[in-house]
Design goal:
By secondary structure, this protein is mainly beta. It contains 2 helices and 23 strands. It folds into 2 domains: about 170 residues, Immunoglobulin-like; about 140 residues, Sandwich (Immunoglobulin-like). Strand 13 and strand 14 form a beta hairpin. The protein is globular. The two termini are about 35 Å apart. The structure holds copper (II) ion. The site of copper (II) ion has 5 residues, from strand 21.
Amino acid sequence: MLTNFSRHPALMALAGLTFLASANPGLAHATFENGQAMQNSTYKAVIRIPHGCDGQATHTVRISIPDGVIAVKPMPKAGWTVRTSTRSYEKPYSLHGREVKEGVSEIVWSGGQLGDDQYDEFVFQARMTDRLPAMQTVHIPVVQECATAKVSWTEIPASGQDPHALKFPAPGIRIVAANQGGGHQHMAQHQHHHGMQAAPANPAEQVIRVGDLEITAPWSRATPGGAKVAGGFMRITNKGQSADRLVGGSAEIAGVFEVHEMRMDGNVMRMRALEKGLEIKPGETVELKPGGYHVMFIDLKKPLRAGDTVKGTLLFEKAGKVEVTYNVQAMSGGGGHDHGQHKH
Ligand SMILES: [Cu+2]
């Protein structure tokens, strides 16, 4: 019976998978570190280049910027020269009350040396406008050039085609709708901090609203020394008329955030990432709890101690992004709320 989630062998499986992925760079594609972005927000794009060109080192990386992606700024990279090309937009964009008529069409990092047995990351910042349709993927073509060869990650799946069927898919970013219920959650947290309104007596019972969703009592659990992962738990209620999905998020203390489920595989409890997110049907409440659905904080920057709070965000396909704060419970808490632990 699973009692302590963070000691479970499933974690070893997770670590094993990570190792396997990095030990087989030849199988990997060019991808974005964070494959999700929200409309009308600034996105930090980290393109992971998994290898050179079939034995040769890569000296140039080119990225084409598609329509709908504006205010592009590449990050300089030691050992590489970065330059950009610009073009005029067919239809100007409006950004902070100004009209934007032209912008970056291509970023080129050149003069570097990325060996075929090495991996590297190339970073730029951009604004994802609402001309990118929500719940669809925008593809960003990437080309690696080597001495006499090149690798073109430029294949874009046809409608209905599985991107996994492509040999050199352009890396994609899934676009999520801009936050409709703008500001609700900010207000709730504000009032909580300043005591303007009677906050719930137990902060673990805080309710956060975003769009049609109510998120109740996010919590996490103290980690044993050296643990690199932790789970996040909460209840999510959908008061709307249509289904939504928890598709991603972030936590300030974790390098990677994933939405997971645990389920029995024979006699072994295993966890896996929910690739399509966690569905919250209209009128239903889904509980994220130890041994079931949870969000996973991976690559923890520090251990979690009882009484800590952890700030993060959740990203829903329709309701958009919301800020949440997890209350960290004692390791032996067994999921109950320990009223004595909070530092407020
Ligand atoms: Cu997990």
